[in-house]
Amino acid sequence: MKHLKIQRSPVELDLKDFSLKGEPITYQHRILKDIASVFLDQEAAKSIPPETIVYHVQSWLPVDEGTPGGLSFGTSTILSGQVGNEYFMTKGHFHSLSDRAEFYWGVQGKGMLILMDRERNTRAEEVYPGSLHYIGGEIAHRLANTGSENLVVGACWPSDAGHDYEEIAVNGFSARLLEIDGNPVLIDCKK
Ligand code: PAN
Ligand code: ZN
Q1: Quick one: which ligand is closest to 92's CA?
Q2: Is the omega angle on the peptide bond into residue 10 within 30 degrees of 0, that is, cis?
Q3: Summary count for the chain: helices (H), strands (E)
Q4: Could you give the domains of the chain?
Q5: Smallest Cα–Cα separation from 54: which of 89, 19, 28, 104?
Q6: 187 C-alpha vs ligand 2 centroid, how far in Å?
Q7: Burial of 78 by CB count in 10 Å (0-12 exposed, 13-18 middle, 19+ buried)?
Q8: Residue 142: nearest ligand to its CA?
Q9: Ligand 2 mean position, distance from CA 7 (Å)
Q10: Tens of pLDDT along 143-168?
Q11: With DSSP H G I counted as helix, E B as strand and the rest as coil, what are the percentages for the chain, rounded to 5?
């Protein structure tokens, strides 16, 4: 560290859409063909262009993933859309170091944060600009866009948390968020 130096942080945030600018920033996008298996209605998934972007994530990892004691920051943008009557959503995951917690907060748009514990009980919290969400350890989390514009969500998580996608890929969540009579409803599918 340079003693007495005054400088800007290497990364800044646009407070309107939470896009990140600066270095180092990573960008990841998920298109329908890569995540089609998370949706219930596979016939409906086939009727949507496979290159359709479902969500993208910008992240600032100030320290390498896996570093104990560090933090990572990200902005997730889930596009508006549905596969059948299921909203566009993220893959969802437990953390690999599964006791690691995370904060999410709503920036733009409207959606749901779907949360499932290890006993496979699932509930959801409404996401809207200003909503703040504490995701405890051992809780799988997934975002769904229930509105007609982009859902933008900020996140901060421990840099050693890691992402365990396998458990959700194999067993899924125990409830699905479907649009029924124009409203989002959690439908039980506990095995
Ligand atoms: C978020 C998520 C992001 C994308 O940054 O990684 O919303 O969702 P999936 O990782 O489930 O595809 C986070 O929860 N980080 O820990
Ligand atoms: Zn997470």
Answers
A1: 1
A2: no
A3: 3, 17
A4: 16-188 (2.60.120.10)
A5: 89
A6: 23
A7: buried
A8: 1
A9: 31
A10: 999 999 999 999 999 999 999 999 99
A11: 10, 45, 45
